[in-house]
Amino acid sequence: MRMTPALIAGKLFALALFTAGAGHAAEIKVLASNALKTALEELGPQFEKATEHKLSFTFNAAVPLKAEIEKGAAFDVAILSTPITDDLVKQGKLVGATRADIARSGAGLAVKRGAPRPDISTTEAFKRALLDAKSICYVEQGATGIYLKGLFERLGIADQLKGKTKLLPPSNPAAHAVANGEAEIGMTQISEILPYRGAELVGPLPAEIQLSSVYPAAVGTGAKEPDAAKAFIKFLTAPSAIPVLKAKGLEPG
Question: Domain limits at 28?
Fold first, then answer.
């Protein structure tokens, strides 16, 4: 079989990853934001096949994951939002020199599949869609939920939305709740809407009020497998990961 340049590059990259973590097959404990869940669930097995390391994922909203790290949770790699990652570096919980941006994501609005799609093309249209909806929802402790609370205050609609807002736990993502009929409108990261067949992405928030989140990865200062953890971060930032990230509603770096 003729080896194309792309195939050769892929084999060399896999060899480099294997060499970087050579010595033993490690189990890498990863704490990651829900926004990257579907991407990591596809990229993880590819990394395991290339390196013979094993990955153990814990997915949650970034805020509770930060709390777990601060309490002393054992982990090798954390993939969280930029503000939380930077704060954990300052606290000495993450190794700043290993920090690398993995993906960027925007927030979007979801409705139950087949339901009417409201106009959210402008900020005024977005406000009207929320005010006209019978119910809305978002994960209270998620980065998007924290942002939305402040946004509604700035838009002057916070009081009008209180009575019809359902604040969700991280275990019940907004798109999942919408798909189940728990709320008419759900808001979260676009990458957290696409996996749910019962929900439909209406579109991103208008550009002037969009929340653009960056998700860096970094090795924990107490990591048991620091070399294998670094290899995993290198894998996630490689060109070969880009198609998967984009397919899952994310942009690289």
Answer: 5-104+214-252
104 near 196, Cβ under 8 Å? no
Please indicate, yes or no, whether residues 243 and 163 belong to a single structural domain of this protein: no
- Note the pLDDT of residue 17: 52
User: Of 208, 198, 40, 230, which Cα lies nearest the Cα of 111?
Assistant: 198
H or E stretch including 58?
Answer: strand 54-60
Taken in order 45, 47, 52, 53, the sign of the CA dihedral is negative
Note whether 94 and 123 are same-domain residues. Answer: no
pLDDT beneath 50: ranges in the chain: 1-12, 14-15, 18-22
Tokens at 144, concatenated: 């998007």
Calculated CA dihedral for residues 253, 85, 109, 121, nearest 10 degrees: -60
Beta bridge partners of 166: 137
The model's pTM is: 0.84
* Residues 225-241 pLDDT 10s: 999 999 999 999 999 99
